[in-house]
Amino acid sequence: MKHHRITTAVIAVATTFALAACGGGGQNPSTSSGAGGFDAEPAEGGTVHVLQNADFSYLDPARGWDGGVNNFYRLVYRQLTTSAPGSADDPTAIVPDLAESLGEVSDDGLTWTYTLKDGLKFENGDPITSAEVKFGVSRAWDPEIGIGSPYLKQVIDAPEDYEGPYKTGDLPTIETPDEQTIVFHLKKPFPEFDAVVSQVNATPFPEGSGAGDEFIHEIVASGPYKLAEYVPGSTIKLTRNESWDAATDDVRAAKPDGWEFTIGLDPATIDERLIAGQGTDVNAIAGIIQPATLPRLQTPQLQERVLQFDGICTTYMGLNTTKAPLDDVRVRQAISYAVDRNAIVNASGGTQLGAPSTTIIPPAVAGHKDFDLYPSADGTGDVEAAKKLLDEAGLSDGFTLTLDIRSQESMQAQAESIQQSLERIGITVELNLIDTSTYYETIGTPSQQHDAAITGWCPDWASSAATFIPPLFDGRNIYEKGNNNLAQLDDEDVNARIDEIGAMTDIAAANEQWGDLDEQILELAPIVPLMVAKTVLLPGENVTGLHSSANAASGGIDFVGVGLKDPEKG
């Protein structure tokens, strides 16, 4: 995200609210708006419209895991805990959701217990009990379905050969002594476990359901909205879930009667519609404004509708360390020296939409350490240093690599900038364009992955750098599907440091160590940090309740508070 993060990592895209995963350091990304009154309390009723280019990755939360779809999931699904709403005093906090309170942890830190609230129901009126929560969580281990957030599998103890409820059956390390109590046994102490069960793949599901592709286009709602219509690549319509009880939910305001997502629109068309603000578009929100549109937002009438959020996500290029010649650290370091980060920012729309990055952990996230291992004059790349390393590696004549990239104009502009940077040192970059809706799945499948890929990562919960380093660089968590370690780095020293820091109970001290490990990892150059993306939005004039969420929306607008000023308008 949060990637997906590829996250978590998720990069700023012009089609959804993903900044591509989920800023940080306990602070809410700063917000600025004109006189639009976007933080006013919404009225009851009406339909919020969302305009976007690409479809969501999956409706099944065990599969999907990026900033755009995670935000959508918040409307229809609930978990034991969740991120506080964007309007909260601390929007980065993890708060109870289906559970009465945050978890009760044992003295040894290995057991966490939660008690469910009364009155919880699925959309069909069936009760949500501890058994359904356990079943939903256990789906994360299915090798075909469980390709989303990795934290459940990484933290909760499970038999080594466990492959989820459909293939293996019961997961004995999660106990349900009664209908309202659920007990988790961990592999080792993890003081941030409340955040783990806030992940979207901890969504409850009716026992026995959801096998195969059942939920790719379907939803079993536990949140305030249910699926009324889904035409893949075209339309998603949500209506009220009458079985949802607002008295059990302190997070979701659910003021609109419904939501309508229009998919498959050209990004330039989206901008034109938002600028014109006609008909139902006064009730519309969309993703990041296209770079070419930015100069047009300077008029007073549009300026009062502009929303800006600071960036919390790192855009980077992963280098596949298992493929020659990228298995040579000198070659990866040469690429790190050669990249012109300022050109990347310019290709992405300029300084209004991003800032160059030289670290994995962005400045807004706890644990950030300021350093630059591959410096150059004005950040334009050190060609001589890069060529020297290629000479040492026996590659003076250069080589050809294939770069995976999403088939979007802004993403292709970034890739073309990489082409131009590396051409200066004799490396020919061939682009492999992948549809946005399947991009994360494709690059997260090592058998389909090429030499490099541009993606991004956002913190899955903002108070800790633990959601940046381990998902991207722990060599013991390289999966056949749903792999976030795009570099496929498996370094003993890095793995050992991840274990040492992960065992620390002082989160502030751990964050400092994560910053040091950031530097240690970049000495190996498994990725090239490119930029930290910023968010510029142009909501419709009748939309309100617009607050940023680092955890739930990758720094974009948190859907749970959104509504309309006048439900009859549009």
Molecular structure report:
- With 570 residues, the protein is of the alpha+beta class.
- The chain has a domain at 1-55 and 263-558: Dipeptide-binding Protein, domain 3.
- 24% of the residues lie in helices and 18% in strands.
- It contains 16 helices and 20 strands.
- The chain has helices spanning 67-76, 130-138, 151-155, 164-167, 193-196, 267-276, 300-303, 329-338, 341-347, 383-392, 409-423, 436-443, 469-473, 492-502, 507-524, 550-553, and strands at residues 31-33, 47-51, 81-83, 94-96, 104-105, 111-115, 174-178, 181-185, 225-231, 235-240, 258-262, 284-286, 307-319, 354-356, 399-406, 427-434, 452-457, 527-537, 543-544, 563-564.
- The model is unreliable at 4-35 (pLDDT under 50).
- Residues 94-477 form the Solute-binding protein family domain.
- InterPro entries: Peptide/Ni-bd, SBP_5, SBP_5_dom.
- It holds the Pfam family SBP_bac_5.
Brief summary of the model shown:
Residues 94-477 form the Solute-binding protein family domain. The chain is α+β, with helices and mostly antiparallel strands and 570 residues long.
Text of the CATH class of the domain at 1-55 and 263-558: Alpha Beta
How many beta strands in the DSSP annotation? 20
Enumerate how many helices there are, as a single number: 16
Rg calc: 22 Å
Beta-strand content estimate = 15-25%
| Main sheet properties | 7 strands, mixed
- Given the helix and strand composition, which structural class is it? alpha+beta
Enumerate the spans where pLDDT stays under 50 for 5 or more consecutive residues: 4-35
CATH topology-level fold name of the domain at 1-55 and 263-558:
Dipeptide-binding Protein, domain 3
Shape: globular
Mean pLDDT: 90
Task: Report the CATH superfamily of the domain at 1-55 and 263-558.
Answer: Dipeptide-binding Protein, Domain 3
Span of the ends, CA to CA: 33 Å
What is the helix content? Answer: 10-25%
CATH architecture of the domain at 1-55 and 263-558: Roll
Signal peptide: 1-20
Keywords: Signal
Domain Solute-binding protein family: 94-477
Pfam families: SBP_bac_5
